[in-house]
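Review form for a predicted model. The reviewer records the input and the model, then writes brief findings.
Reviewer: anonymous (R2)
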Amino acid sequence: MTGSRTARQRARAELTQEIKDRAREQLAEVGADGLSLRAVARELGMVSSALYRYFPSRDQLLTALIIDAYNALGDTAEAAVKQEDTPRGQWLALCHGVRVWAKHNPHEYALIYGSPIPGYQAPQDTVAPASRVAVAFVGILARAEAEHGLRPPLTAPELTPVLDDQLRRLAADLAPQLPPAAVGRAIFAWTQLFGMISFELFGQLVGSVDPADEFFAHSVDQLAEFVGLRPPQGV
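Model under review:
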C-alpha cells in the first residue's frame, strides 16, 4: 500500500513538473499575460478539467512559477557566496551570479522582476523565496561588520526619522548587528543591481554600454565600496 501511494505521488510530481515546464515555454512565447491553462493542457494532451486538479487557476500556476524562479535565483546567489572566502569576494560573486542566471533565464527573470501581471496579486507564499537574494546580501554585510567593520567611503545624508525607523525595524529582523545606515546602503545596492540587470535584459543599454560586461563589473565593484566592503586597513 505504501509503495502504491509513493508511485502515485511520484507520478503526480512528474506531471506537475511537466505542467510547469510547458507553462515556462508559454512564458517565452506569449509572456505571463498570455499564460493559459487550456493551452498548457492542449500541449500535454490533457483535458482542462484534469489539469485543474493540479492547478485550479492560472494564478496558482503563476504563483508556482514565481516561487520556482525566486528559489532558483536564491540557490544561485547562495551558491556563489559559498565559493568565496572574503565578504568582498562573496559580494562580487553574488552580483555576477545573479546576472548570469538572469541572462540564462530571461523569461523567468521577467516574470519576477518585469512589469506587474494585470489581475495577479502575489500571495504571502512568495515572500520568503523573494527575499533570499536580499538576505544573502545582508548576510555578507553582517559578516564584514563582525570581522573588521564596514567602511563606506563617503559621508551620506542623515536619515530622516521615518527612514531611520523603517531601517531599524528591518535590521532587527535581518541583522541586528548592522546599523540602519548600512541596511539602507544594502537596499540601495540591491535595487541598483536589479536595475542594471533589467536595463540590460530589456534592451535599455543598447547604444550606450552594450555589451555590458565591463560596465557591470565596474559598477558592482563600486557598489562594494559604497556598502563598505573595502579591504581591512593595511591589506
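Findings: The domain at 65-227 is CATH 1.10.357.10 (Tetracycline Repressor; domain 2).
Further findings: The CA atoms of residues 38 and 48 lie 6 Å apart.
Recommendation: see findings above.
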